[in-house]
From TrEMBL:
Function, in words: Catalyzes the transfer of a formyl group from 10-formyltetrahydrofolate to 5-phospho-ribosyl-glycinamide (GAR), producing 5-phospho-ribosyl-N-formylglycinamide (FGAR) and tetrahydrofolate.
HAMAP family with a match to the protein in the record: PurN
Gene coding for it: purN
GO molecular function: phosphoribosylglycinamide formyltransferase activity
Residues that hold N(1)-(5-phospho-beta-D-ribosyl)glycinamide according to the record: 12-14
Keyword annotations from UniProtKB, A to Z: Purine biosynthesis, Transferase
Source organism, top-level taxon: Bacteria
Tagged with keyword Transferase: yes
Lineage, uppermost ranks: Bacteria, Bacillati, Actinomycetota, Actinomycetes, Micrococcales
Catalytic reaction list: N(1)-(5-phospho-beta-D-ribosyl)glycinamide + (6R)-10-formyltetrahydrofolate = N(2)-formyl-N(1)-(5-phospho-beta-D-ribosyl)glycinamide + (6S)-5,6,7,8-tetrahydrofolate + H(+)
InterPro entries xref list: Formyl_transf_N, Formyl_transf_N_sf, GART, GART_AS
Name of the protein: Phosphoribosylglycinamide formyltransferase
Length: 196
């Protein structure tokens, strides 16, 4: 059984999808804890399913490194096989990446390497493209620059706003995340191949 710790910053819709999927006894992964960098709404999903959670508030620390040290201490408590970034809106500090990579995956609302960064949906609209997408990647020290595990195109429709386009991308992100977790659990994807 693959042990997952999921890190969030917001509403946790991808987290909810993973928790829903893991209710199936046949699903080969379990979320053992949920962490956040603030009092995120998505922590309610963990509470609903009886999953332990922790908060390491970024603003409580003098530096990103100090925050990273505490985040690392929390992660070690749960001994995850894979750390899932699911809407965590902060770059992981180097010491966290060094300890867990390549067993850190992230969802992103664009067809990487197109439109990396915090505003992938907005950037796609600003560029006037006719399609964007969703990706699941291995986290490295860059910004959305790690190896791509799964991705799928999503069309941009006339009149799309950032909100409407993002709402169409989210279900694709969720499907890709669940497929990636399944592939990791059954060995179709071997993260050891991505060691630096």
């Amino acid at each position: 059984m693959l042990r997952l710790v999921v890190l969030i910053s917001g509403g946790g819709s991808n987290l909810r999808a993973l928790l829903d999927a893991s209710q199936d006894a046949e699903f080969p992964a379990r979320v053992v804890a949920v962490g956040a960098d603030r009092q995120a709404d998505g922590l309610a999903h963990a509470e609903h399913y009886g999953i332990p959670s922790f908060v390491v508030p970024f603003t409580s620390f003098d530096s990103r490194e100090a925050w990273g040290d505490e985040l690392l201490a929390q992660l070690r408590e749960w001994q995850p096989d894979v750390v899932v970034l699911s809407g965590l809106m902060r770059l992981l500090p180097a010491q966290v990446v060094a300890e867990y990579a390549p067993a850190i995956i992230n969802t992103h609302p664009a067809y990487l390497p197109e439109f990396p960064g915090a505003h992938g949906v907005r950037d796609a609209l600003a560029a006037g493209v006719t399609e964007t997408g969703a990706s699941v990647i291995v986290v490295d020290d860059g910004v959305d620059s790690g190896p791509i595990l799964h991705q799928r195109r999503v069309p941009v429709e006339p009149g799309d706003t950032e909100a409407t386009l993002h709402e169409r991308i989210k279900p694709v992100e969720r499907e890709l995340l669940i497929q990636t977790v399944l592939d990791l659990a059954n060995g179709t994807i071997d993260l050891k191949e991505y060691r630096a």
